[in-house]
Write a structure and sequence with these properties.
single chain; about 300 residues; alpha/beta; Aminopeptidase; eleven-stranded mixed sheet; three-stranded antiparallel sheet; about 20% helix; binds zinc ion; Succinylglutamate desuccinylase/Aspartoacylase catalytic domain-containing protein; metal ion binding
């Protein structure tokens, strides 16, 4: 693991983590670019940054899984993003790395973890626990959708480290993923006051509850609906020689949908549960939509237009 501390424009202590998966070069390149652009952290008397200190803010940039990055493989022994909380004494590299990474993020006010996938755009965010910091991150990122993974696994970074949001920035290995992820990181830094080049912008974000994985059998895979596209009741989401996945309830959308990206799943089913509002606009919770769900390509502001008035 490599940790690079940089100057923050404000008092927040924020972190961006790339290279959780070694075969996702976008996160590594984005972290390296930010490290080159942001000013070194100027500490009095050469003191090391102490995450517990009440002092000024910092931007902590982390390359998580260096051996896997070096080998250009997702992991060496175990998937790091399925290994939390981990075990410092484990012989498996990633299980031992997990608590070290969590320690680097202890006391940090906001964490953004960078990922890419085999699935098609649009990019989206993921959280497990909606805190004020997470709300600020999610509504400050240039994404229309956030997946609430709180009901899924408890072994991911965003479930193990408070105030963490993961972001899928695009297709694995693509230049678009690097370009988008870089802009998303700058938006994240602005949202938390760590970057003062321009004011942050916030917008309502549609929350999709992650429900279950959609298994793949064998033979020719066919996926009929794109990410966050509403699957009509009774329609077939995906099929192969073994499975025909027909959706029997309204409001279901695909997450990480892919015909050939994953060996064992077509993706996941999600359910649109509402919107999260920008900081300062109402309580910290998911507001239900009172219009038909699954308006996958509409933006959050449109979804909010018909509902009861905002506070301001
Ligand atoms: Zn990843």
């Amino acid at each position: 693991m490599q940790t690079i501390d940089r100057e923050s424009a404000g008092s927040a202590r924020v972190a961006i983590v790339g290279g959780i998966h070694g075969d996702e070069p976008a996160g590594v390149r984005i972290v390296e670019r930010l490290a080159a652009e942001l000013s070194p952290l100027d500490l009095p008397d050469g003191e090391a940054t102490d995450g517990d200190a009440e002092s000024e803010g910092f931007v902590r940039l982390i390359l998580a899984n260096e051996p896997a990055i070096e080998a250009e493989t997702r992991y060496t022994d175990a998937d790091l993003n399925r290994a939390f909380p981990g075990d410092a004494d484990s012989d498996e590299y990633e299980r031992a790395l997990a608590p070290r990474l969590a320690a680097e993020l202890e006391g940090v006010d906001a964490v953004l973890a960078l990922h890419t996938s085999h699935s098609a755009p649009p990019p989206f965010a993921i959280y497990s626990d909606l805190t004020e910091s997470v709300r600020r991150t999610v509504t400050g990122l240039p994404v229309d959708h956030v997946v609430d993974a709180g009901g899924l696994r408890s072994t991911t970074l965003d479930s193990a480290v408070p105030h963490t949001v993961s972001i899928e920035v695009g297709r694995q290995g693509s230049e678009e993923a690097v370009a988008f992820g870089y802009e998303a990181c700058r938006a994240f830094l602005r949202a938390h006051g760590a970057l003062a080049d321009e004011p942050p912008t916030f917008s309502e974000t549609v929350v999709v509850e992650g429900r279950e994985e959609v298994p793949k059998g064998g033979g020719e895979p066919r996926v009929h609906y794109a990410n966050f596209e509403a699957i009509p009741e009774g329609a077939v989401f995906a099929e192969d020689d073994v499975y025909t996945h027909r959706v029997e309830e309204p409001g279901v959308v695909p997450i990480l949908a892919s015909e050939r990206g994953y060996d064992d799943i077509f993706g996941m089913y999600g359910h649109v549960s509402g919107v999260v509002k920008p900081p300062g606009e109402g309580e910290l919770r998911v507001y239900p939509l009172d219009e038909p769900v699954g308006t996958g390509d509409g933006d959050g502001e449109q979804n909010g237009a018909d509902r009861s008035e905002h506070a301001e």
